[in-house]
Amino acid sequence: MKLPVTRRQGAVAVYFPACINRIFGPPKAERHLPSVPEAVVTVSERAGQPLWIPPDVTSACCATVWQSKGYREGNTLMANLIIERVWEWSDQGQLPVVIDAGSCTLGVTEEILPYLTDENLSRHQALTIVDSIGLRLVRSRRRRHGG
Description:
Blueprint: E1 13-16, H1 19-23, H2 36-46, E2 51-52, H3 64-69, H4 72-89, E3 97-99, H5 102-111, H6 118-125, E4 128-131, E5 136-139, H7 140-144
Parallel strand pairs: 1-2, 1-3, 3-4
Antiparallel strand pairs: 4-5
């Protein structure tokens, strides 16, 4: 599925479309409707809160699939990769990151923590992750310290 074209300049957040919303298209009968990434980008633009989808977003995933299948090495690799990418995309935590699937938000905010290097754990704590579906703001720092 082709992702919507976005611009980095003027974006208020980074948009990380979940793999499920990038890989699988709608059912045949619904192909005339916008995809989840198209809808999220359009609604955000209309609200005056444009999002940016990084050009290399398809090379990363939240690591949830690796965790759920028990693939420790794959999970460790992808967990660290997503934090490194998000760190870069968000200008070292300056921009929030929007994820459009609750399971991926949970994966990135909580489930990957035991697999991160010390450097990436520190980066993770400085990130702000927004779950677009639940409109729930998750601050890694607060989650990590119970507040």
